[in-house]
Amino acid sequence: MRPDTARGRPARNALHDISPAATLSDIAGLLAESDRRDRELALRHAYFRWGWAAALTALASEIGGRIQPARPTELELLRYGPGGRAHHAEPRPGDYQGRGVSRERS
Description:
Layout: H1 20-63, H2 72-80
């Protein structure tokens, strides 16, 4: 086995040419491709947001009202129950207490 291919090292060839001219042109090409992909991703995100907003508007017009609660506190109550986020993991009335286990709420 040749030493340059030992342990997965690639052999020296044109792909691994590190001359300054090749490196600068390769870097310029990579930066241009990166900019193109960034613009494409930004457009994808913009179209996704536009589609999502259009779907919500269509749904709201279909059901004839609001989709979201009037105030964020209503949503908090629906998500976390009485007491809000600070107490959402505490046991509630009617929760299973286990067999013979008594849990007291402090």
